[in-house]
Write a structure and sequence with these properties.
Strand order of the largest sheet: 3-2-4-8-7
CATH topology of the largest domain: Collagenase (Catalytic Domain)
Largest sheet: 5 strands, mixed
CATH architecture of the largest domain: 3-Layer(aba) Sandwich
Oligomer: single chain
């Protein structure tokens, strides 16, 4: 059965820290490969950077379960519930606690079980924000028929109809008669979106924002031809459109349940429909106040106020924890991650520098400071601290990648090449890393151009 990866290309102005998100993604990859020990270590690093990363905490606890460490898992589940009892991670933790029997064996809930009501936790952005269209106005969808057949465009319209029915009573979707007047634009392309030599995507979704950070447009691009030149079937185009429209409407992540249209993989041999979980998730998304939308409406303001209140509480909790543990590296890191999350980069830098005083070999803090200076557009200091992180962990791909990125941004190409050569010497596997490969290609072209 052929399976094709459905990828989502997202460019958020308010994304979470790149290194925190990377640890989480690496952890999920290891978890899916059943390498629970390595996954737990990786999730632990994500938690060190952001103590309130509930998704990483939940996965960490599940890893403990899979490794047979029942008491440790139970403690972590209770911590999640205590930190944010109304969160999706807390609701999942409660279910996990119920599933742990007296003998310490974990009984996974069947993927088709009604206990999994929705996946709203995957609908938010990586830093927990709801980004969707204003529910008080019609969501206008335009299907560009210029480069396609009537059959393909009709399949997309069928997909739009499914989401329209799903949002009935919550939000309204209407057709737009031009791309200029639309909120969501669907276009067709004969090009393929290749991820690796063995995986390619059939569609992409790219959100665009105004200068004052309002959602302006979501562009969905659907491929009609495979890398080998095979024309995709109308059913496959329909399934892809149904999936990508979910992203365009505001479900920015993927479901972990194969029965949902927002699952990352899809079978191309039968026509899909929205699952009950898909419908519950999109309804819940539009019933919640949005952090970012296409208008400066009251619901967005409510969400912003709620976020500010939550942030103030987090700062207060982090400061209290630090007072009780004044020499704790973990307490300082936690406060630093809270400041980072709220955009207070100056205070975050001060706190992470205190960590370095406590532990001069704390590579994560050097890396965090490098990232914070990058956010402040202070490239020189960013390079200084990224370099210190690399000096401590020279074989770590992620550290060298960010250092090279900064070198390239100020045209210090020789230093960028030297950093890559040092990484290759210590970690030959780095050459297989996609980001490292892109930097190498850029530097190779820079050399040719110079000659």
């Amino acid at each position: 059965m052929k399976k094709v990866f459905l990828a989502l290309i997202i460019s958020f102005a308010f994304a979470a820290s790149s290194f925190g998100a990377t640890y989480f993604q690496q952890g999920v990859s290891l978890f899916n490969k059943k390498n629970y020990q390595a996954a737990r270590t990786t999730f632990s690093k994500a938690i060190d950077l952001n103590n309130y990363d509930l998704s990483s905490r939940y996965y960490y606890a599940i890893c403990c379960v899979r490794l047979g460490e029942k008491e440790r898992a139970i403690s972590e589940f209770h911590t999640i519930i205590r930190m944010d009892p109304d969160s999706y991670a807390a609701s999942m933790s409660k279910k996990a606690l119920i599933s742990l029997d007296p003998n310490g064996f974990y009984k996974p809930v069947n993927s088709s079980s009604n206990q999994y009501d929705n996946y709203i936790n995957n609908a938010v952005t990586s830093n927990g924000m709801y980004v969707r269209w204003d529910r008080t106005k019609p969501i206008r969808v335009y299907v560009d028929t210029a480069n396609t057949t009537i059959e393909y465009s009709n399949e997309v319209k069928k997909a739009v109809k499914q989401w329209t029915e799903a949002l009935k009573g919550t939000a309204t979707i209407v057709p737009a008669y031009s791309a200029q007047s639309a909120d969501i634009v669907v276009v067709f392309s004969r090009k393929t979106f290749e991820i690796t030599k063995t995986h390619h995507t059939l569609g992409t979704t790219l959100p665009q924002y105004t200068s004052n950070s309002l959602l302006r447009l979501s562009k969905v691009e659907l491929s009609t031809m495979s890398p080998s030149g095979k024309v995709y079937s109308p059913v496959l185009v329909y399934n892809t459109a149904l999936h990508e429209l979910g992203h365009a409407l505001g479900i920015w992540g993927h479901s972990q349940n194969k029965s949902d249209i927002m699952y990352a993989y899809a079978d191309d041999n039968y026509r899909r429909s929205l699952s009950a979980r898909d419908i519950r998730t999109i309804k819940l998304l539009y019933q919640n106040p949005a952090n970012i939308t296409n208008t400066s409406n009251s619901s967005a303001n409510v969400a912003t106020k709620l976020n500010k209140k939550r942030i103030n509480t987090k700062v207060e909790e982090a400061l209290n924890y630090l007072k009780k543990n004044p020499t704790s590296v973990t307490a300082h890191r936690h406060l630093g991650s809270v400041y980072m999350g709220m955009g207070d980069y100056d205070n975050a830098i001060l706190v992470y520098k205190r960590v370095i005083v406590l532990n001069p070999k704390d590579d994560l803090s050097y890396f965090a400071i490098g990232y914070l200076y990058f956010k402040k557009k202070d490239t020189q200091n960013s390079i200084v601290y990224y370099k210190k992180a690399v000096d401590l962990k020279p074989a770590k791909i992620e550290y060298t990648a960010e250092l090279v990125r900064q070198y390239i941004s100020v045209k210090r190409y020789n230093e960028a090449r030297a950093a890559l050569e040092n990484l290759y010497r210590l970690n030959p596997e780095a050459k297989k890393n996609r980001m490292i490969a892109k930097f190498q290609v850029f530097l190779d072209f820079a050399t040719i151009f110079k000659k």
